Amino acid sequence: MTEGRVKWYSEKKGYGFIETEEHGDVFVHRTGVEQEGFFGLQKFDRVSFEIKETSRGKQAVKVRRLEQA
Predict the structure, then answer these.
(1) DSSP 17-53
(2) Position 36 confidence tier, pLDDT thresholds 50, 70, 90
């Protein structure tokens, strides 16, 4: 699993980006989020995920919010 922080995510559009040190910015679509919770993903949330290579580039799948310390 890779970890990163939500750079931005639009609940209305259903997608956003996660920033990571190792892989740069990774696209995330709402279908790749496993537990959206009441407010979905929020900017700066720490998340873990897997990276899937698509014809358009890297995409985050199996995205889960990490517990805040």
Answers:
(1) EEEETTTEEEEEEGGGBS--TTT---TT-EEEEEEEE
(2) low
